[in-house]
Amino acid sequence: MMGETEMRCQIHTLYTKVDVNLRSLRKQNITSSETLTDGPCDVDFVESVEYIVEPENYMNFSQFSIDYVDREQKLYFDDHALESRFGGRQTLEEHKNSYYARDQTLHCGFVKGPVGYPSTGYDLNEKDEEYMAHCRIVVSSCIFGNSDFLRRPTSRMISTFSKKNVCFMMFLDELTMRKLSSEGHVPDDEGYVGLWKIIIVKNLPYADMRKTGKVPKFLSHRLFPSAWYSIWIDSKMRLQVDPMLIIEYFLWRMKSEYAISNHYDRHCVWEEVVQNKRLNKYNHSAIDEQFWFYQSDGLVRFNDSDLNAPLPSNVPEGSFIVRAHTPMSNLFSCLWFNEANRFTSRDQLSFAYTFFKLRRMNPGKPFFLNMFKDCERRAIAKVFRHKAEDLHPPPVSRHFYS
């Protein structure tokens, strides 16, 4: 992997600038009547990474400093001892204050208990952590609980530049690694299966495998502290577009710091709640508790007739996320993770609440989120069905602590 200065120079000499009015593009191409389609739509990617250049002053977004709660000392509630938890024990006041885009220290996973307490989970090999600390551009995915097949990126579609400079990281637990090895996916001497660098996670922090999956999905800025950009791809998808072309189109060209697609069928959280209950995706009482909390804190129905709405949909299809690791993007990711940690692992229920509360609490500090069309997501990767739909019975949600 080349040095930071050399890599920055190559990215700057690689590229063309395109000015696009993002708001009008979103309103023109995404409407509430968009329905599920099986095929992709055309995406105007540049022909080659050789023709791209990182725009000057691209990282000129809202600037502030955030740090993370590393250890909690108070593990008592009503004089009862409490176990330490990976997500920590955030109070209602801490939850409210964490939404301010300002210099702060907030909960964002990886919280340790007092000295002498056992690990809270997501334990990684020290050599893997050292490798991850040097990654600048990351594509990551995960499989926990032997819930899916290993789908390798289409190598012929990935440029030599990306193969040399992008970290392709696949997080697995030991059970999944044993199963994949029995199917012929045996890592080579350097720990690779195809382009994927295999990272074994021990001591999973949650019994709910979907909730454990939120760690690499939302917390790439914590797992890869030196990264400039990251792309999350769900294990049900096989990447078939070069990562640098994705970053250019969805972030640089759209002048955004975070990109995610709209849901293919639903656009209102109210609809998502009904669907999750109808399909028994999670404990109904836990969904009700979460939904009640969000409504009491200002969440309203999606209005598809509002042309000034900041998002074309309030429900994302969260299987593909493109991020610049800016302060606001990192804060949003921490906040979204905290909602999934606090309530259900159904992150489509918490996305709109997180986005609109962050926006409401920081009127002078915009968050540049590009919600693109679902058919564009399907152009990026081939979509399959998960091998397993029900990984573990979902637990009830947890309350705030005083």
Overview of this protein structure:
With 402 residues, the protein is of the alpha/beta class. The protein has one domain (4-383). It has helices at 4-13, 22-29, 92-97, 126-132, 160-165, 174-182, 209-218, 220-223, 243-252, 269-278, 284-296, 327-342, 347-361, 374-380; strands spanning 66-68, 76-77, 80-81, 104-106, 137-143, 166-173, 192-193, 196-201, 229-233, 237-239, 258-262, 316-324, 369-372, 381-383. The strands form 4 sheets. An 8-stranded mixed beta sheet has the order 7-8-6-5-9-12-11-13, with helices on both faces. Helix 7 (209-218) packs antiparallel against helix 12 (327-342). Residues 67-386 form the TOD1/MUCI70 glycosyltransferase-like domain.
